[in-house]
Fold this sequence. Notes:
Layout: E1 23-24, H1 31-42, E2 47-51, E3 60-66, E4 71-77, E5 83-87, E6 102-104, E7 107-109, E8 116-118, E9 123-125, E10 143-149, E11 152-156, H2 164-168, H3 170-176, E12 185-193, H4 197-202, H5 210-213, E13 233-237, E14 240-244, H6 255-270, E15 281-285, E16 289-292, E17 298-307, E18 310-319, H7 326-358, E19 364-365, H8 372-392
Antiparallel strand pairs: 1-19, 2-11, 3-4, 3-6, 4-5, 5-10, 7-8, 8-9, 10-11, 12-18, 13-14, 14-15, 15-16, 16-17, 17-18
The structure holds FE2/S2 (inorganic) cluster and fe (ii) ion (FE2).
Amino acid sequence: MGGETGFERIPQSEVDFLGTRPIPAKPYYDPDWFELEREAVFRRTWQCIGHVCELPENGSFIRREVEVLRASLLVVRGKDGEIRAFHNVCTHRGTQLVEEAQGKRTKFSCPYHMWTYGADGALISAPDFDQFHVEKEDCALKQVALEICAGLIFVHLGKDPQPLREWLGPLAEQMETLPVARATTFTEYSYEIDANWKLAYDNFQENYHLRFIHSRSGKPTFSDDNPFGYPAEFGFHGPHRTQQLWSNPEAVSPPYQATAFGLMIPKATEKGLMNTEHGRKYFALFPSFFMLGTPVQHFVHVVYPLSAEKSRGVIRLYWVDEDGDASERYAREAIAVTAHDVHCEDVDVIEAGQRGISSGALDHIHMQTQEALCRHLFNTVEEMVDDYRAETGQ
Ligand code: FES
Ligand SMILES: [Fe+2]
C-alpha cells in the first residue's frame, strides 16, 4: 500500500443534486417494475450491440438478440457499404430469417417459403408472388434505427429516436478519440448472471467493494489516503455519467500485470493510441453500457437484461490491428485473462446480493456518496418509468 498521495474523497456537496434518500429495493427484483423498464427505458434509448469491425466487408452480417425488447436483429453491411439493422423477421408470416450468429451473404432466404431479401432489406423474390395481395415494395424487412459512434453500433427500437450524437452529448466526441474508434478486432467473453441488470451493472460503478472483493487484484489502486481506491472525479451528462479513475502514483503491479502492460505500452505508443486525454476515464452510457478509456486495455462491458432477476453480460477488449508478434499476443491474452479473473471475483457477491434483495427482507438499500453513479442510474431509471406511467396511465 502506498503512503500519502494527497488524495481527497469527492465531497457530498458535488452530488447533493442526486439526493440522499434510501433507494427502494423492489425495482431490483419486481417483475412488474421490469415490465415497465422494457418500454420506459430500453425502448426509449440507444443500445450498443456491436462494433463496425464485425462487418468488415459488403455482405457481412451479424445477428443480435435484444431480449429485453424480445427482438432479434439482423445487422448487415449493404452493397453500398452502409450498415443497416433490420428485424430478423420474414415479412411473409414472421419466421426468423437468420439463425447463424454471423457470416457473409448477398441475399437472405427465409427457410419456410423462400422469400428472399437483399442486403438492403428489399424483397427480391417470392415464389408464386402473383397469388399475394400486396406489392413487393411493401414487403421489405422492417428496418431499425442504427447509428455509429466511436466504431460502436447502436440501435434504437422506439419511435422517433433522438439522434445518437445528440443523445451522447459531449461524450460522443471524447469517445471518438479512444482506440475503440479504430478497433479492428477484439477478445470477447459473455456470461449469464442471476441478477437484475442494475445490480449487475452497479457493481462496476462503485469502487467501495474493491478492497474486499479484489483485495489481491485491486491492490495497486489502494493507498493509505485512498484505501478504497475511490475515483478522482465524477461527471454527470444527462442520463450518462463518467468517472475519472484514480491512479496511485506509488502503485506496484504484480509482475505478470506489469509485464503485460509493459509490453503493450510501446505498441500502443507506436499506433498513436496513447494520445488521448480520456485514458483514465470511465464512460457509463445509459442504460447499461460502460467502457474504460485506457489505451492499452480497451474494456467495454454491456449488461443486457433477460428478466427481473437475470442478465447477460458481454465483455470485450478491443484491439487495434491483429497482434503483430508473440509479445503482443501474450500481452493481449494476459490482459483478457486478468479482466476475466477480476470479473469472476465479482459474480458470486452480485448473485448473493440478488438473492438477499429478492427475498423481500429489505424495503430499501443504501448508497453512499462514493456510490453516486449507482444513485444516478437509479434516479434516471425511476424518472423514465415515472414519465412513462404518466403518459400511458399505468
Ligand atoms: S414465413 Fe418466410 S417465406 Fe413464409
Ligand atoms: Fe468488482
